[in-house]
Amino acid sequence: MNLSRFGMVIWKEFKHIYRDPVSLRLVILMPLLFTLLFGYAITTDVEHIGLAVYDGDQSYESRELIRKFVASDYFSLEQMAGDSLQLEALLDAGEVKAALVIPEGYGKKLKRGEVPESLLIIDGTDPTIARTALQSGNLIANVYNMRTLSDGVFQVAEMKTRVWYNPNLESAKFIIPGLIGLIMQNITVMLTAFALVREKEKGTIEQLIVTPLRPVELILGKLVPYIMIGSIDFLIALFFGTWYFHVPINGSIFLLLGLGFLFVISALAIGMLISTVTKNQLQSMQLAFITILPTVLLSGFMFPRDGMPLAVYWLGNLFPMTYFLEILRGIILKGIGLEYLWKEVAGMTAIGALLLAAAIKKFHKSLD
After folding, report:
1. Would you put residue 152 in left (φ > 0), alpha (ψ -120 to 50) or beta?
2. How does pLDDT run across 215-243, given as a tens digit for each residue?
3. Residues with Cβ < 8 Å from 228, sequence gap 6 or more?
4. What is the pLDDT of residue 147?
5. I want to staple 266 with a disulfide (CB 3.0 to 4.6 A). Which of 76, 228, 289, 320 is the partner?
6. Tens of pLDDT along 54-75?
7. pLDDT reported for residue 367
8. Helices 3-18 and 21-41, axial angle in degrees (round to 10)
9. Domains and CATH numbers, the chain
10. CA angle 305, 310, 315 (to 5 degrees)
11. How do beta strands 98-102 and 117-123 pair?
């Protein structure tokens, strides 16, 4: 081996790396970014589960039971409901993950030595949160319900539990809707991340520059074919995922398809923005990877967002995937409609529009 020639090759490669500062910065920042994201986002510890309470008794005993739930680190009282229908609406909307129902006469029965019953309803769409709520709720109730009187007689009360939307806490019913969204995002982002970069590398971008095309016309024109491809892929993933894994769609299939089409556009906007800010396919691939991985961690696809620090939780709200997962699980598992999902739809639409506007603004009809 000629050490001189070998050394020249090494020097030449270092010069190539130095001349690509974007890739160099990405490579240096990636381990820092991923260490922080993984460290904060990957957790199965769930605390402060959103709780709504309907207290039909309004007695000292009922208030004491509520206080025990609130005093624990597992539940956070979000709202006192006026009736059971309001509790159902709060669970459907996803505003709380658990609901405590205390019937009228609870305190009197307890004083008479009878066995009063309370009910803890749990949202089973996320099995990790549901299991924590189930176990901690039973523990709190058991500690409260067994109290010794002065004459040595035990007071006993009973708390029943009921899991909605996913009674058997099947992981497939939680994973499959999220997997459909994740697959769609990854395919669409990767498809469009190379759309303009290919033109730059092949030199055909100059031909587009000299045409009377406006940036908005070019960007939207590039998107349309991928919107069609992405929509077909969404139909395939939705059909195969729900049919093969036996996950029935409890809500409106037409609403799901319409919002899926909207998500495809939002995800494509991410890829198009990547394509406008990068100069070659390597940079596009690196930036796409950096974009896709945080959505897996922060969107609630695998790990409950309730256990994340507040800053990381809000960071997850910047991704369309976060909103679409709530939409998928809401329609497929809960069977709810737009009246409960309008916040998620508005958030996903707003983020998608901002990304698309940024891509159009970033693209300049110049060689710079």
Report:
1. left
2. 777 777 878 888 888 888 889 889 988 88
3. none
4. 56
5. 320
6. 999 998 888 988 998 988 888 9
7. 44
8. 70
9. 49-164 (3.40.1710.10), 171-362 (no CATH)
10. 75
11. antiparallel
Encoded amino acid at 357, one letter: A
Across 220-333, the runs of DSSP E, i.e. the strands, are none
Taking 50 as the threshold, does the pLDDT of residue 353 lie above it?
Answer: yes
What is residue 249's predicted lDDT score, i.e. its pLDDT?
93
Return d(Cα 304, Cα 129) in angstroms, integer: 7
* Chain position carrying tokens 């959505």: 295
Percentage, residues of the chain above pLDDT 90: 28
3-class secondary-structure state, position 41: helix
Q: Which of 94, 102, 53 is nearest to 76 (CA)?
A: 53
Q: Bin 20: left if φ > 0, else alpha if -120 < ψ < 50, else beta.
A: beta
pLDDT tens profile 7-60? 676 676 667 666 666 666 666 676 676 666 666 656 666 778 999 999 999 988
Token digits for 130? Answer: 């549901």
- SS3 of residue 121 by DSSP: strand
- Phi/psi for 77 (5° steps) reads -70, 115
Residue 304: what pLDDT?
Answer: 82
- Rounded Cα distance between 104 and 101, Å, is 10
Among candidates 364, 75, 98, which has minimal Cα distance to 209?
364
Nearest to 99 by CA among 110, 112, 88, 114: 88
- Order the strands of the 158-164 sheet from edge to edge: 75-80, 49-55, 98-102, 117-123, 158-164
Summarize pLDDT for 134-158 with one digit per residue, the tens: 988 888 887 776 653 444 555 667 7
Residue 232 to residue 240: CA distance in whole angstroms? 12
Q: Report the C-alpha gap between 239 and 59 in whole angstroms.
A: 51
What Cα–Cα distance (Å) separates residue 86 from each residue in 99, 125, 126? 10, 19, 21
Residue in the structure block whose two tokens are 């891509």: 359
What is the distance between the alpha carbons of residues 1 and 312, in angstroms, rounded to a whole number?
A: 52
